[in-house]
Amino acid sequence: MLKPVAVACLAAWPCLSAAQEKPKAAHGAHWSYEGAGDPSHWSKLSKDFVTCGVGHEQSPIDIVTGKAAPLSKGTAGFDEVRFDPTVRRAPVVIINNGHTIQVDAVGTESLTIGNAPYILQQFHFHSPSEHTVDGRSYPLEAHLVHQSADSKLAVVGVLFEEGAENPALAPFWKSLPKSAGDKVVLGSDGVNVGPMLPGRHEVYRYAGSLTTPPCSEAVKWFVMADRLKASAAQIAALKAIVHVNNRPVQPLLGRAVYKDTLH
User: Fold this and answer.
1) What is the pLDDT of residues 228-247, one digit of tens each?
2) Which of 35, 148, 203, 226 could pair with 198 in a Cys bridge, judged by C-beta atoms 3.0 to 4.6 Å apart?
3) What number is the average pLDDT over the span 129-154?
4) SS percent in the chain: helix, strand, coil, step 5
């Protein structure tokens, strides 16, 4: 069974194995979303961030729906993805890490890709969205970050439109930590992420990267095709804390984007 791993080593992602990254070095260079440390400068801030500038499978991307091909068992590299939203008891902590609001909820939900389970480590939020769809940006995006026993990453992205208040977000929005370094412990009852996902589990699937330094690649991305709603007040509450925290879309560079369904 996958043991819970430490979280929040990198700004918005779980710790990675030493073979993948050097978290200590990544902490050494200051990066941001604005000013001299903004995304256009990330690759120059540290030798550990070079991939942000030279990588060929960078995230986020603009998803062109008309070019997304259906994924089937005949597709090279096909792995069926199964989704298990079962609630498991786990510590739940909301953290303001200076770049985003992150909810650590180790072990509360899983994806199985092929035969490999990927366990939810945390989810966090970007405003405006990082991914765009047919050139359209959205006011909010959630990233549900999953990790396998061998430290591979899979992320489910959920886009939000402005509309009615989202009841699935409400428990976390009541306790948003306002300052960098602050955290709020919500208990150990786990998180039901089911309501945080659209009813249809159709996704756009592609090979990408972390969207924060060091921009490591080999991340499996699943961006939900349907959008959810969040109220103007909920969006404003997050923006009041994080301001702008999205990386601009990156070139696709020949990568395929597929339409698939989480079963």
Assistant:
1) 999 999 999 999 999 999 99
2) 226
3) 97
4) 15, 30, 50
